[in-house]
Amino acid sequence: MHHAHIDKFAYQDSPVHRLDSRVKFIAAIVFTAVVISLPRTSFSILACYAVGPFAVLVLAKIPLRFAIKHILMISPFVLVLALTCPLYDKTPVTVAFGPFLWHSSLGWQRCFVILGKFIVTMLALIALVSTTRFNYLLAGLQRLGLPKVLTIQLGFLYRYIFVLIDRAHHILRARQGRKLKNLGLAAELKTAAAMLGSLFIRSLDTAERINIAMQARGFDRNWRSISKLQIRRPDLFFILAAVSFLLGLHLFVKPFLQ
Amino acid sequence: MHMANELLSVPVAAGALVVAAGSLGVICRKLRQVISSDKLALMGILGAFVFAAQMVNFRLPAMPGTSGHMVGAVLLAIILGPHAGAVAIASVVIIQCLIFQDGGLLALGCNIINMAIVPSYLGYFLYKTATTGPFSSLRAYIGATLACIVGLEAGAVLVPIQAGLSGVLLVPFSTFLITMLGVHFLVGLIEGLITVAVLGYLQQVRPDIVMGSLPGRVRLSRKAMLATLIVFTVAIGAGLSLLASGMPDGLEWSYAERPDQPEFESAVANEDPRVVVVEDFQSKYSPLPDYSIRTSRLGEAPEPEVEAAAGWTSFAGVVGSAFTMAFIWLAAWILRKKRPSKA
């Protein structure tokens, strides 16, 4: 199977990859919250905040083209909602940006701030996911208090998503090979139902076999992972850097960039 | 349907996260009591099935170009029971957020509530209510369709409420609500049709699954479910009336002053305790109050020096950030170039 694995860079090695997953997760959440609570009218400050995840991405040797492509792929919903802003708020505003000065409306400004926040928070999320193996992230989340049932559920889900997506692709290809024209709603629905139903039954059978294998190996409802969670000196350094970055921007840069 | 970070304010997102985490905790505890360890694999695989099922689209003849996808919350709730279904779909939403970056990290709470918890429980309850008594396929089909539509709509209603409470979007609340309801009625109808078709197929091939002998199924106490439903409805109704009563531009615009219209009168008296609480909360949690562009009011000539100065600082900010990024990238590039030559 060959998927464009979305976390394919998580298996590289770099100083960022070696950090404790809990530290990275909490840093991503705090960063997102800070960016979301920025004022809704100032665009330029977002550029300053973007430096943080950008530095992490570069340090972790994640190709920037991958990050940008990914952000473009997931943007449509936010794009539609952001583009409604100019329709509803046409208050004229003069925007001065360095040597340039142009007239626009408050709605456009909001639209761009929403998009800017989207890009910056997504950069942070991509930086988290593509530098942390999912197993480690799960282990960290469990240590942070995620219920055990949910941890196991997430582990299984992650393990089998790609297997089942592969199967779905096989079924889809078979349909493509046999169906030469659009069949009309009833027939299309019937085909789709049969495809989904057979996929469902195959999934049930797989689950049964996995369960038997797990029982044979003595599964006792515990999710074990070989990842060692340990806060070491690099983690402390990362925390220090992240805190000073956020505090520095909040105290020294933000007052000027309104 | 995936809520994005940018459409929420921090208090709303945090509140939703707390509610979602709390209810997931309770559900997981319940689930541990009713489910035996050999069903854990089943739940995981069925969660993955929902993912794979979203790949299977089918052409809708009326609207060329659009295609139907199924979401699957109701199907899983019908087959696995509401607790397991809710946990399975919640894990799907979490993976969608973490691995596929669909919906943001802060919006995770809202997404879990809207897409996992509400449709699962509501859908299961409706399906069960429709299929009481001896099993008949017609009743099961009607129940499943109804469950899909109502479950999805209930989740869809919550999206504009959360966005409206956050006050980020400028779309009038009612417009957003009607759009969401309309779109999700269609989506729910299609999903209901597919769910019914899949149930029909399963009944032909593996009738044991549909008849409810699949393990992991739990009985919900009808009274408890009704009580929750009533509380939920009242809460939504209260939220709706709070939002809809004379606040066409989202909640915040009506009680905050409008920077663009200085003569704007607040629609809600500021003494209202709810409003005061919300306002306090919001001002406490947003590091800086909103609407900082006050130099350029409607109909008032902007002062040129202030404008220009502000323009230059923001220019400096953007250019400085760009230079910093370029510097970081260059430094990393040079370091990386050097390393192989040394080795």
Report on the architecture of this protein.
Chain A is mainly α and about 260 residues long. Chain A has nine helices and two strands; from the N terminus they run H-H-H-H-E-E-H-H-H-H-H. In chain A, strand 1 and strand 2 form a beta hairpin. The longest helix of chain A is centred in the C-terminal third of the chain and has 32 residues, at about 185-215. The N and C termini of chain A lie far apart (about 50 Å). The relative contact order of chain A is 0.15. The model of chain A has no long low-confidence stretch (mean pLDDT about 80). Chain B is mainly α and about 350 residues long. Chain B has two domains: about 5-250, Arp2/3 complex 21 kDa subunit ARPC3 (Orthogonal Bundle), CATH 1.10.1760.20; about 305-343. Chain B has twelve helices and two strands. Chain B has a two-stranded antiparallel sheet with strand order 1-2. In chain B, strand 1 (about 60) and strand 2 (about 65-70) form a beta hairpin. In chain B, helix 3 (about 75-80) crosses helix 5 (about 110-130), helix 4 (about 80-100) runs antiparallel to helix 5 and helix 6 (about 135-165) packs antiparallel against helix 7 (about 175-205). The interface between A and B is large, with 122 and 108 residues.
